[in-house]
Amino acid sequence: MKISSLLFAAVCAAALSACTSADVRDNTNRDNTNEVSKTVYAMDTVMTLKAYGENAETALKDAEEEIKQLDSSLRRGNPESEIYKINANGSEEVSEETAVLISDALEICKSTEGAFDISIAPVMDLWGFYTKEFNVPAKEELSHELSRVNYENISVDGNVVSVSSGTQLDLGGIAKGYLSGRIMDIFKNDGVESGIISLGGNVQTLGTKTDGSEWKVAIQNPDDDTYIGGVSVTDKAVITSGGYQRFFEKDGKIYHHIIDPKTGCPADSGIKSVSIVSDNGTLADGLSTALFVMGLEKGTEYWRSHSGFDVIFMTDDNRIYITEGLKDVFESELEYSVITK
User: Fold this and answer.
1) Exposed, middle or buried: residue 141 (CB in 10 Å: 0-12, 13-18, 19+)?
2) Which pTM value belongs to this model?
3) pLDDT at residue 147 in the model
């Protein structure tokens, strides 16, 4: 199979530039199954949703409401959001949903020994990745902000979330993965059995395509607009982190947005991109960042000692590695190696 054809059978999940800002509806697809698409801008990204079946339109309407609600409640810069209030007050009683999400995020922080850290926001601010006012910070500035980064300064007691003085909680590195799972729940509750969504490139699927075949999701080549391969999936999230997604250049050097919480600098782990395939969108989102920071060797060790996900690594020297759970569903015209337990 040609790599370039893999994704177009889905929804151009890795090529968001092809999406438009208008809703697209096609009620006469070749399977005679009602198809509804919607494009939403939230969480600073373009989100494309597609659902099939009699209740597809209702499901997408409900999904859009959930997107807007979570975008508002989880946005650190929104004075009305729960995250803003936690950071401003040091402690806040939040919704059960937010408390559970923060608890799950902290579990990923702990299991990755801080390679993923939801308190990294002050350092991200310093580099300008949130404001897009890019800056290469001085060592003294970086050292000061790094002293505020430690996920252990965040605690959850019931629905009360507390942060130590100076710590800033931010769920931007995991919110879209959580949201994709919530949308799948909404689809199911509304009676939709087939759907696919792309939240800024974070892809999650429900069931199979309407013809009974698996969804084919492409993995973008970090160096250009082609694909390194693709995976055939059912009921899975496929989430990729790569330095090519957000970066700036200064004095001839490129600085990407995936910050190593231990150094406060863009991760230099020998990895170009990491894709996680999992039933759990929240887990996939957090681990795509964490394993990018860890690099191939440590990321492989982590995979071998944990369950619930598989990985596609692409290294700086353009080598591709996949974990053995993907060996029957990954396709590529490029050479790749299979990592075993």
Assistant:
1) middle
2) 0.90
3) 94
